[in-house]
Write a structure and sequence with these properties.
Protein name: Cation transporter
Order of helices and strands: HHHHHHHEEHE
Structural class: mainly alpha
Number of helices: 8
Keywords: Ion transport, Membrane, Transmembrane, Transmembrane helix, Transport, Zinc, Zinc transport
Membrane topology: Multi-pass membrane protein
Subcellular location: Membrane
Pfam families: Cation_efflux
Largest sheet: 3 strands, mixed
Oligomer: single chain
Length: about 325
């Protein structure tokens, strides 16, 4: 038996996430700063023959693209929020942008690695003073962007859990991009000073290799987290066990026959739940009432099946097993 809302109830809204206007505005400023510095670093790297500086410039170009993608994702999610085609809201547009940014980071890491190895095998003279000056300016721009995007979109869970559900992954992807830029800028500056003071020209391409590895690691982390949401691979989330525990402690005789979870907003889940129970006191509204203590569950669908006794179905009172 599937429980439906009374006919007099209006269809409820499917806008589950309110967006992040402040992050959208700050990310737009970060795009402007990053794109400007990108042009300066790439030109300076070619002119002064610094592999670390050139790698940082190309790295920054991908970040400018990724930050622009983040801004577009915020805008699209906001404009399409009430579009009826999106049955569970538009928040995953932002998550998709985060995943795409992670893919771009992987490509940048590969390019950095290739160019750095090539420069390590075929070294050429570097104009250190000019390259160092541009590197320091680039680091300043990176730090300014990081300040704009500080926090990475994290909120704290209302129940005191250590869940990481309230992340703005679109903002996090933008933040990782500028932090990666800052890290590669630091590595470039260290390498250039090492070459200038001690003649260690090999430091420049070596730092490019280190930067590539660092960027790849960050990209993997972002790709893993955003990919899980896009694929609805959320059944290992703590909230799944919390749902089972609430029902086990409910005092009703029941068996969970199906449970599906999917994230539809920052810290917000849809839950599709099927139960088998001969307890007539257990209704869909009662189940929703029990689960209401977890405010991350914002879209709950409940199905309750009443098995005929003739089938010999064995039901059990779950809380008696504790």
């Amino acid at each position: 038996m599937t429980s439906h809302a009374p006919a007099l109830h209006r269809e409820h809204s499917h806008v589950f996430d309110d967006g992040n206007p402040l992050a959208e505005r700050n990310t737009r400023w970060a795009v402007i700063l990053t794109a400007s510095m990108m042009v300066i670093e790439i030109a300076g790297g070619w002119m002064f023959n610094s592999m670390a500086l050139l790698a940082d410039g190309w790295h920054m170009s991908s970040h400018a693209l990724a930050l622009g993608l983040s801004v577009l994702a915020y805008s699209a999610a906001r404009r399409l929020a009430k579009d009826r085609r999106f049955s569970l809201g538009t928040w995953k547009i932002e998550v998709l942008a985060g995943y795409t940014s992670a893919v771009l980071l992987v490509l940048v890491a590969a390019l950095m690695l290739f160019q750095s190895v090539e420069h390590l095998l075929n070294p050429s003279p570097i104009h250190y003073n000019q390259a160092i000056a541009i590197g320091i300016v680039g680091l300043g721009v990176n730090l300014a962007c990081a300040w704009l995007l500080r926090g990475g979109g994290h909120d704290h869970h209302h129940h005191g859990h250590t869940h990481d559900h309230h992340q703005d992954l679109n903002l996090r992807s933008a933040y990782i991009h500028v932090i990666a830029d800052a890290a590669t800028s630091v590595l470039a500056i260290v390498a250039l000073f090492g070459g200038k003071l001690w003649g260690a020209n090999w430091l420049d391409p070596l730092m490019g290799i280190v930067g590539a590895i660092l960027v790849a690691a960050w990209a993997y982390s972002l790709m893993r987290d955003s990919g899980k949401i896009l694929l609805d691979a959320e059944m290992d989330a703590p909230v799944a066990e919390e749902i089972r525990q609430v029902l086990a402690d409910s005092g009703h005789t029941l068996a969970i026959t199906d449970l599906h979870l999917g994230r539809i907003g920052k810290g917000k889940y849809q839950c599709v739940l099927a139960l088998s129970s001969a307890d007539n006191a257990l209704t869909a509204d009662r189940v929703r009432q029990l689960l209401a203590i977890h405010d991350e569950l914002v879209h709950i669908t409940v199905e309750i099946n009443r098995p005929p006794l003739a089938q010999g179905v064995v039901l059990f009172r779950q809380n008696s097993l504790a």
